[in-house]
Amino acid sequence: MATLHYHPFCPHSRFVRLILAELSLEPDMVEEKPWERRMPLLEINPAGNLPLLVDNSGLAVPGSSVIAEYLDETHGESLGDRRFLPRDVEQRVEVRRLLDWFHVKFHAEVSDYLATEKIYKRFTPAELGGGPPDMGAIRAARTNVRYHLKYIGYLIATRNWLAGQHLTYADLAAAAHLSIVDYLGDVPWDEDETAKHWYARIKSRPSFRALLADRVLGMPPWEHYDNLDF
User: Fold this and answer.
1) At residue 211, what are phi and psi to the nearest 5 degrees?
2) Which of 4, 60, 89, 173 is surrounded by the most beta carbons within 10 Å?
3) Order of strands across the sheet with 60-62?
């Protein structure tokens, strides 16, 4: 049985969970607290980053991008036209470009700020960086998410999904990051109906159910978080 080391409110972990659910794969789940840097995790993955997938053979596959490529290589062919990393070279470039946009740019400007300040710091010991949230960082993230939402709306205005006509890793990555911001109530959905409609479509997929069931102890989600018709 494969094992996924993850944190429920790590956006990169959520991305991989969506892929696994779309592929109908059900690994054993090991929840990690990133700030603890447990030695058993570091022995498998010295970088200590999440997520980490250990496959049935014991192969350790670290990081969301590496896991996504691994899952495409091992399961992509069986999906045919529904492959999340398309066969066409230009389409693959576009998917990877958008993966970089959300995993690097969106993460640095929005989801990392909000997850760290509003969630992680609540549970992290003071000596490891825990404490009250930095409101300046939160305000910056709330400002930044607006132009990312507009960019999603711009893409969807001319495409069926973010990277083209079919659901790809780009959609799963964007939704994974936005889902955390949405849990916290910091997505101004009323500013872009096109982006909101796209998110409602992907949020309604069966693969999203486990994410919608996640809860932060002592912090319920925003009222529309698990409402499919929001």
Assistant:
1) -65, -40
2) 173
3) 28-31, 3-6, 52-54, 60-62
What integer pLDDT is reported at residue 228 of this predicted model? 85
Q: How does pLDDT run across 48-87, given as a tens digit for each residue?
A: 789 999 999 989 999 999 999 999 999 988 888 789 999 9
Q: What are phi and psi of 60, to 5 degrees?
A: -90, 125
3-state secondary structure 180-199: HHHHCCCCCHHHCHHHHHHH
166 CB-contact burial (10 Å; exposed 0-12 / middle 13-18 / buried 19+): middle
What single-letter DSSP state applies at residue 138?
H
- Collect contacts of 143-149 with beta carbons under 8 A, ≥24 apart: 144/109, 144/110, 145/110, 145/181, 145/186, 145/187, 145/188, 146/188, 146/191, 148/106, 148/109, 148/110, 149/187, 149/188, 149/189, 149/191, 149/192, 149/195
**Nearest alpha-carbon partner for 111 in 195, 183, 40, 6:** 183
Looking at residues 115-131, what average pLDDT do you find? 88
Q: What is the mean pLDDT of the chain?
A: 93
Instruction: State the Cα–Cα distance between residues 100 and 42, nearest whole angstrom.
Output: 25
